[in-house]
Every structure is written in structure tokens, then in C-alpha cells.
Amino acid sequence: MTALETPPSTTGTEAGWTRVCATADLEPDRGVRALVDGEAVAVFVTSFSGLHAVGDVDPFTGASVLSRGLVGATIVDGHPVPYVASPLRKQRIDLRDGRSLDDPTTTAGAWAARVRDGWVEIGPRVS
User: Fold this and answer.
1) Which domains occur in the chain, in start order?
2) 65 class by beta-carbon count within 10 Å (0-12 exposed, 13-18 middle, 19+ buried)
3) pLDDT (tens digit per residue) in 104-113
């Protein structure tokens, strides 16, 4: 796990999007933590479903650890769902929307994420 702070230069980044790291800084299936507008966000690029950003705070324990979690996938309603399992109690967080797969009423939150000009950018919170 690596903690990243927003690079000082965000030239070319449009309003509402924060440049957090170069794409080369991400390793497939491993998370990094980035501070986006004062919030800890766990950023993942998976080898099977692409780029995702969810809150780094484990909603079950309150610890900022999801970026250290194990990435995997499970089948839900016949479709593969990428998740990160918390390193503390192993609850699974859906990387697409930040909701817990073990308790759907609980969420870590999710942010829009994209790659632009070789940089990972985090956009507005989507859930």
C-alpha cells in the first residue's frame, strides 16, 4: 500500500477532477490511498475490471485500511462483481459502487475515476 497526495501540478485537469498519480504508480490488483479534497480514497486498477475508486475508510471498523485490502471478484446474480476485502474483518466492498456485499445497507462510498494523459484522476463522489 502506498499513500499518495495530490501532485502539485494539476495543469489540464478540468473542474471537479483531481489528479492523484501517474498510471505507472499503480500496480494491478493492489491499492493506493490518495487524499482527495481531504478525504482518503482507495484507488485500484484491477487486472480484470479496470480502474476503481472507493472510500478508504472501512465502514465496519472506521479504520482507513481498504487500500490495503485484497482484490477479488465474485458472482452476483450471474454477473462478476469486483471487490476489495477489508484486511481487518474481511467484509467485501463492491469496487463499482462502494457498497458492502455482506451488508448492502453499508457503504464506503465511490468516486468517479478515469485515466487522462497518463494520469489517474478522481472525480466527484458517485455514491
Assistant:
1) 2-125 (2.102.10.10)
2) buried
3) 999 999 999 9
